Each structure stands twice: as structure tokens, then as C-alpha cells.
Amino acid sequence: MKARIGVLPEGLRMFERLSGRELLAYTGRLRGLPGDEVDKRATQLLDVLDLAGSQHKLVIDYSTGMRKKIGLAAALLHNPEVLFLDEPFEGVDPVSAQTIRKVLERYTASGATVVFSSHVMELVESLCSWVAVMAGGRIRAHGTLAEVRGEAPSLQDAFLELVGMRGTTLSPSPAPSLTGVFVRLKLSLLRNGLKQSSGRKAVWITSLVVVALFAALQLLGLIALRGQAHVAALTVPLPVLLALGWAVMPLFFPSGDETLDPTRLVMLPLRPGPLVRALLVASLIGIGPGFTLVILIGSVIATAHGGAAFAVGVPAVALSLLLCLALARAVATANVRLLTSRRGRDLALLSGLLIAVGGQLVNLAMQKLNGAGLARLESVADVLRWVPPGSALDAVRAASEGAYGRAAAGLALTALAVAALLWWWQHSLTKLMTSPDSSTIGAASTKPTKAARGNGRGGLAALLPAGRTGAVMHRSLRYIWRDPKTKASWVSSLAVGALVPIVNAAQGTASVWFSVFAATMLGLQMYNQFGQDTSAFWMVLQTIGSTRDAYAELRARALALALIAVPYVTLVVTGTAVFTGKWWQWAEVLGLSLALLGALFATGALASVLAPYSIPQDSGFKNVAPGQGAIAWFGMLGALVGAILCAPLGALTIALHVGDAHGWLWILLPLGAAYGLLVAYVGLRMAAPRAAQ
Predict the structure, then answer these.
(1) Please, is 664 exposed, middle or buried when counting C-beta atoms within 10 Å of its C-beta (0-12, 13-18, 19+)?
(2) 123, 109 in Cβ contact below 8 A?
(3) CB neighbour class for 491 (10 Å; exposed up to 12, middle 13-18, buried from 19)
(4) Prediction pTM value
(5) d(Cα 446, Cα 57) in Å, to the nearest integer?
(6) What's the whole-number mean pLDDT along residues 527-551?
(7) Do 629 and 192 meet the contact criterion of CB atoms below 8 Å apart?
(8) Hey, which residues does 283 pair with through a beta bridge?
(9) Which whole-number Å values give the CA distances from 461 to 19, 189, 207, 555, in the listed order?
(10) End-to-end distance of the chain based on CA atoms, in angstroms?
């Protein structure tokens, strides 16, 4: 059936990091058309739709009219018998609309059928020979244009009579509180996300319980430190670390707060001042703010001594929490357009490196701390007590010591920082809501970008297999390089995989086994494969009509990842063996790493079809759709299953060591490679039927 129809949905989400010609080339190959025929039809459609001059521009840089036309070209590429269009002329300029209209008239003249939805009755009257009126999910009338119109002077009048809307007027109502609106909006987004499935609700509740238990343990730990001589050396830097996390996490890690995206509000008549206050209050709702509040309260309890100190602790906690939330909002608002632009690739690359390096530095610092105690942090605390929100917690310490002037100064410094962040946030909101963005300016440029030149048949494409496998592999590899979010994830994984063995070697715990992290980090890239396609998955969905098609799609994606992962894992293991001088561990570690990589490919494919989640493309700082954050983390638990699948090889490794059969350890390399291939094959085969459904 899918081979006989073409679809152009209203949302028009496509693979935006492909050029127009590349999009058509991949669509044709995914549908099984011969390469020469795809090129021929793509050239004809690009010419007819007046896109030949823009065929090498990335789709993300297309205007609305150009996106409609390239979507129509993709729907027509395989010459379907029936074409389904959803509001094909909405938001399209007159020139593009006329072009699309001529193409559709030629298409129907050839004997094909076009079914399209529209709310513009004049357009329906001028194009359609058969009409159906739908309201409330039910067909109210259908037949020829004359039959549906009946005695009414126009189809518009007939439509209004059929749906019972003639003469309806709207009475004005008083404007509600903006803060209350956003609080209810936040709660509605959360509630509606959980309503979508009982499984999603169960995962969210599980995540809530886990975070609550973790927060409770942290609170008890901080309370247990009360009375320690150097406890402030921990509680002063702790809120600074929390604030840093709040600044980074909404940008590059999953978040379920859809109200974080200010671009959704640019067309609303909202004043920046009231909007900032409303969003700040709405930000208090969520698991993250609750966890932060618990940690801050625990820090005050651990630090404060005396009634005055606890009194200072109340505004200290409030100011610290507000600073964390305002910082997250201000950073996200200031960078949203950069992260959604082409330049966002560079920021994604930098952020991935910073996160990877920073994480290892924290790991190194914590290991040093375990051996020296809290006194080791005193020098750090002396610096951070002048950095908000550390200054707020230092005010609690100062009040405990009777230094009320220093306590007042610490609170004042934190309050000034909150005010500065709120001003920055409001300024960024004003600029965002009044300035044109790159989609308006960039669409006028006809110069093809360097990344988009070429038709996808040369270079790497020539080395890949023909047909669907090569097309999917090439598309996946291009997205790793072009898409900011995908690139950030890969850079972080590559950096962590290389840094973990180096950092541990620097600490004196040199072992080649630490290089297994490289296989773990890259194997996780197989998770949520279809979610990575975002709303463009509908284009892939049209080409999957059987279990065989689904298996071919998943296999090609795994092969694309393996092209990077296998050489990289081999390089890291070999480099670590050279760096540590423990060559005798090379074969066993590489064998176990390849087995783990295959196991993660298998569990990643299953998780992709059993627990998929959306990655919004209209937000530069959010990697999971609202209400699905818990699903994202829950799906990653499949990595534990992947590790368990490697238990047989792990048991064999231990047996060879215990039995003093070191001369046979080399056999783990071919066994690990073969085992990884077998497990990956089984996992892909198990995932294929579900993907086809």
C-alpha cells in the first residue's frame, strides 16, 4: 500500500540537514528505486517545482514555500497512484502556490488522484471535483461540488451552515493572571504528557521515586556532617556546582520543560517584564527544582549554628534557588537561536568537549578529596564564597560565627546576581521577540553551503553499498556531522571514551580495562534511533512496509555507527595498552569491548522500538519532548542489559585467569568479535518486527 501512495503532512518535518537533492536521492533509494531513475526523476521534479537553483541548499535553510515544494517532490518521486496532502498551500507565497497548483493539475490529468485537506473554501472550489465536509471527526456531507454546495451561494456558506457556525460571536473575557496561566500551562504539559500512555506514567513515577530517594540520601548525608569543622568547605562550593549544572543541563541534556522554549511565545502580545516573572514562577514546578531545594536546605542545616544563622538560611535558600532557575532560563534564551542555527554545530562541538573534560576533572577531584577529607576544599571554598550562590551559603557560615556584616554582604551579592540574571533574561527575551531570525534572512540566500554541495553520489557514498543500506548509512553519517545535537552527543562520547583511561592512568590506577568505556559510550549512540529522526521519521515510515524493510533500516544504521565505533574502540584500546605498557591485556580487552559494542547495538535497537522518545527540532536546547524525559533515562537502562549479555565472555576471561591459562587469552579477541556480531544480529532481528508495526 505504501508504495502506491504519497503523503505530504502539514507539519512538514524532513531530514533538514540534507540538501534538497540529497533528500530526494535518499527518499528514492529508500523506496527501492534504481539510482539512475531516482536522479532522473529528482532532476525533473526540481525543474518543474522551480527548485533547481536551490537543490544544493540544506532544507533547514529553505523558506516555507520551498519546504512545501521539496516535500511535494518527495511525495511524487515514486509516481504514486494517490497523493494525500494536508493544507498544501498554507503559508505558501503566491508564486510557489501557483507552481504547486500547476504540478497538481498535471498530476491529476495523468489519471492519478489527489486528496487534500483545506479550510480555504475558495481554493477547494477552484481545484476539486469531489468534496467532503468534516466536522467533529464526522463526515457531514460529500459528493460533487454542486451537490455539496446545494442552494448556498458559495461553498463557504454551505460549509458554515453544515457545521452550524453562522452568526456565532465571541464575547470578551477578562485577561487572567499571566503567572497563573503559565503555572497551569506547565502542569497541563506535564499532565498531558503522562496521559499518553500508562507506561510513560509508570516510568515518570519511577524516576520521581528514584530522584526523591537520592535527594533524601543526600539530605541525610549533609545532616550527618553537621558539626564537622570543615563542613562549610563543602556546602559553599556545592550551590555553585548546582548552578553550573543548571546552566548546562537545559542546553545539552534532556529536559521535559516545554515552557523553556521562548520561541513559542514570539507571536504573542506579551510584555517581557510580566513574562519573566510568570516563567520564573512556573520554573519552580518540576523534579529538578525540588531536588535542588532539598540539597540547599541540607546545606543550610549542615552549616548553620544558632537562630540567627537559620534565619539567614531562609533567604539564602530562596536566593540560591532563584539564581539557579534564572541562570538556566537566561542562558537558554540567549543561546536558543545560535543552537538552532548552522553555527550551532561549533557550539555543540565545544560543549561536548567541555562536558567530557569537566566530568573527568570532577572525577579526579572527588578521588583526591576521598583521600584528604573536607579540609582539602578550604582553598576552593575561600574563592567560591565570593561567587553567587556560594556567597549565600557563606552568609550562613558568617552568621554562625557572628559576622553579621559579612552575612549581609553575601546575601546582597547573591541578590545582585539574581537581579543581573533577570535583567539579562528580560533583555534576551526582548531581543528574541523583536528581531528577525536566520530563517527569515537565510532563506533569501541562493548560495549553496559547502556542506550541501554535491549530489551525494561521490566521495563516501561511492564506497558504501548500493540500495537502501548505502542510502541509510550515508544519511546517518551526514547527520552525525551536520546536526548540532547529534554531533554534540558523538563528541562527548568520543572524548569520554578516550579521557577515562588517560585520567585513571594519571591517577596511578593504570589499566587497559578502562578503555572499555570507549565501547560503552559509542554503543549508546544506537539508542533511540527513530527518535533521532525527529518528525522526519514519517519519511522513513513510508518506506517500511515489512519486517524485511525494518531489518534493513536498522542494520544500515548499526553499520554506519560501526564504521566509526569499531576503529575508534580499537584505537583507544591499543593506545591505552601502549600508554600503560600492559600489552598482555590488549587482546582480551579488545575482544570484550567488541562484544559489548555488539550487545549495546542489540539492546539499542530494541530500546529504539520499545521505548522511543521525541527529540524536538524547534528547540535548540532540548533533547527530549515534554513528558518523555523519564522514558529517555529508562530506555538507557538497556545498557545494563547489554553488559549482562557479555557475562559469558566475562566468565571465560575470569576462568582463564584463575586457571593460569594466560597463553589462551588471545582467543578472547576473535570470540569477542564473533559474539558481538551474533548478539547484534539477534537484537536487530528481534527489533525488526516491532519496527515494522
Answers:
(1) exposed
(2) no
(3) buried
(4) 0.54
(5) 8
(6) 78
(7) no
(8) none
(9) 15, 43, 42, 17
(10) 14
